[in-house]
Amino acid sequence: MLIEYFKQYMQVTCNITDKSVDHYVTGINSINTLLEKYNFPIIDIFAVSSCSDLDAIKIFLKTNPEFLNKDSIGHHMYSVAFNHFYRFACTDSDFFRRGINRMDITVAKPEIITDTAAQWKRNQIVIAHSIEGANYCCEHNVSHSTFIARSSGKAYMEGHHLIPLKYQTKFNCGIDVYANVVCLCPVCHRLMHFGRDSERRYVAEMLFDKRSARLSKSGIDIPKKEFIELVIA
Ligand SMILES: [Zn+2]
Ligand SMILES: [Zn+2]
Question: Residue 143, Cβ neighbours under 10 Å: how many?
């Protein structure tokens, strides 16, 4: 999934051709091959789910002679590709704050389909970008305040999947996507999981009205009634 979002990010931010984007993807895939060769615990950069994984890869690459040699022969295309991906995943919060809806694309359905919610891996990078995209405001009500989080120095907020990931099997495209993640204050987040149905329905309807266009751009075309049923099921 991150590979698709990375391509979109490169197109939006660098305004480059599909061919150049593919060039970066090829560069990252060569790094993946190298990671596997050296038995590094993470062997697919596009499958990372947190920035600490990328930090670990960064440190490995900086000290791996084969990589340094390959990179220097290749006019630094490998490190440039990695740095673009790192910027996308971990440091370009400004981009997401300026309009995360530019990233709404249909994403392929994950290959491994399991039937329990616990087995779906949530991508923490997608969650972090979604919170940035909402400017650290509760999307149920922007006046909800929390406290300043130690890690970000910003208001503490949580990412919530509107359509729970356990319903992935019902869709032909991925649903762990930006359009399906909302930023909520911890109270509203708990409400969506543990509140009474009447209140959950109210919030779900409001969020559907805000998100339906983005969901549909991401391939998730769902009538309101069916959406509400999945959200508050
Ligand atoms: Zn949630
Ligand atoms: Zn709230």
Answer: 8
